[in-house]
Amino acid sequence: IRTASGMQPTRKAMELAPKITEALTSISGLLGAEPDFSPHDSSYVFNIGLSDDIEACLAPRIVNAAAAEGLGVTFAFHQSNSSLWKQSLQDPDMDLVICAEPKDFNTSFSSQVLFSSSYACLYRPRNGAVNEPIALEDYFAANHVRISYDGRRGFIDDMFEAAGYARHVTASFTHFSGALSTLMNSEVIATIPSFAAESYAAMTDLTVSPVPFPVPSFRCFMVWDIARHNKPHHEWLRQFIGNLAQVVR
């Protein structure tokens, strides 16, 4: 109705307005609702960023569980780490990153702790001898290989030197898997996350020993863009990986 103050709805329109609003809200909810997700029927490819030490531990578990459960989804693993995780998530196809203590975390992302771990020594026993825990004196008398994402000094070097020790590093590697052939063919020690040491030892004839020096523990996280948080397929992925990671240490 035209009035002095402009157009006004009729009485009938005022009566219909709440019902129309309710109907439009219901339609909007139906159109905006996420479809149900079935990992058995879907052919979705999950893209996961992670460092190769975590990959050595988790990837076999993921592949074996997917086969055992007859899942239709598949997985693609990409190299990342605690410094590069944010760069990895700039890829719109990246579902999540698994890394140790992500640096520069902010509220644009969500995270979940997967497991905690510490460090262990990985090495080849000398002359097939029966293995004993490495003594502190033998540890610092041995040759070592370093693994760090940039091939330079790591916090382990800083920690030892702050306590008055220095290890002799004969080579540095930017990937854990890159050091394996040297470990298998040389008398050197790698001080790496415990879960990675156990995984690599299970695949080779290498031996795991505790570090003969107090070393800190750390946590590994799943990190993802907050926009994916409530997506059904993403919720399933996080639960799937979380269950598999419960036995990691």
Write a compact overview of the structure shown:
This protein is α/β, with parallel strands linked by helices and 249 residues long. The protein is built from eight helices and twelve strands. The strands form three sheets. Strands 4-3-5-12-6 form a five-stranded mixed β-sheet, with helices on one face. The protein has a five-stranded mixed β-sheet with strand order 9-8-10-7-11.
Pick out its properties:
five-stranded mixed beta sheet, alpha/beta, 249 residues
Topology, element by element:
Elements: E1 2-3, E2 6-7, H1 11-32, E3 45-50, H2 52-68, E4 74-79, H3 85-88, E5 96-100, E6 109-117, E7 119-123, H4 136-141, E8 143-147, H5 155-162, E9 168-173, H6 176-185, E10 188-193, H7 194-203, E11 207-210, E12 218-225, H8 232-244
Parallel strand pairs: 3-4, 3-5, 8-9, 8-10
Antiparallel strand pairs: 1-2, 5-12, 6-12, 7-10, 7-11
Helix pairs in contact: 2-7
Account of the 3D structure:
The chain is of the alpha/beta class and 249 residues long. Helix content is 36%, strand content 26%. It contains 8 helices and 12 strands. The protein has helices spanning 11-32, 52-68, 85-88, 136-141, 155-162, 176-185, 194-203, 232-244, and strands at residues 2-3, 6-7, 45-50, 74-79, 96-100, 109-117, 119-123, 143-147, 168-173, 188-193, 207-210, 218-225. It has a 5-stranded mixed sheet with strand order 4-3-5-12-6, covered by helices on one side. The chain has a 5-stranded mixed sheet with strand order 9-8-10-7-11. Strand 3, helix 2 (52-68) and strand 4 (74-79) form a beta-alpha-beta unit. Helix 2 (52-68) crosses helix 7. It is elongated and about 95 Å long. The protein starts with a strand and ends in a 5-residue tail after the last helix. The mean pLDDT is 88.
